[in-house]
Amino acid sequence: MPQPEHRAEDPQSPEAEHDLGNAVVPDDRSAVASTRLLVLVVERDPHIRELEAHFLQQAGFEVAFAVDGREALRQARERLPDIVITEVLVPKLDGLALCRQLKSDELTKGITVLVFSILAANSRAAEAGADAFLMKPLAEQRLLSTVKSLIQKRQTSKG
Questions:
Q1: DSSP 97-138
Q2: Side by side, which strands form the sheet with 83-86?
Q3: Residue 28 in 3-state DSSP?
Q4: What is the CATH number of domain 28-151?
Q5: pLDDT tens-digit profile of 13-44?
Q6: Domain residue spans in the chain?
Q7: What is the CB neighbour count within 10 angstroms for residue 155?
Q8: Does the global pTM surpass 0.85?
Q9: Nearest to 84 by CA among 93, 94, 95, 92
Q10: Exposure of 53 in the CB half-sphere (CA atoms within 13 A)
Q11: pLDDT (tens digit per residue) in 86-126
Q12: Does residue 135 come out as left (phi exceeding 0), alpha (psi in the -120 to 50 range) or beta?
């Protein structure tokens, strides 16, 4: 299977905007690579999963997958990922219900949740407790800058 094209995007472009005050995080792959943070991707579309995996792995993250919300909840409880990236429209337990359950469980409430969807569900994601929301389509730099901003925010709040 051919690898997705790896292309750099201008972090100042409108695609680089996200719901975290549009903070620009330097593309310091070595800093992320040394920590090997775990990202759990909950996505039913195999093409989107493949692209997300490629972008995240190239940036130095360890990536795990779940194709439905129940499987994601089970993995989150077992593996305690640093970040869960979930689509809203996943089977068995939708992404917003998954987020609510993660944030209400003492074991998983500290996991960062990024809702990534084709649906305009920003306010619903916030109500569910999501740490951030991104609207599809998938843009490499926008995804990575958001994930890195969330990691930085999490590390700052812990320290």
A1: HHHHHHHHSTTTTTSEEEEEESS--HHHHHHHT-SEEEESSP
A2: 62-66, 38-42, 83-86, 112-117, 132-135
A3: coil
A4: 3.40.50.2300
A5: 333 333 433 333 334 444 444 458 999 999 99
A6: 28-151
A7: 12
A8: no
A9: 95
A10: 13
A11: 999 999 999 999 999 999 999 999 999 999 999 999 999 99
A12: beta
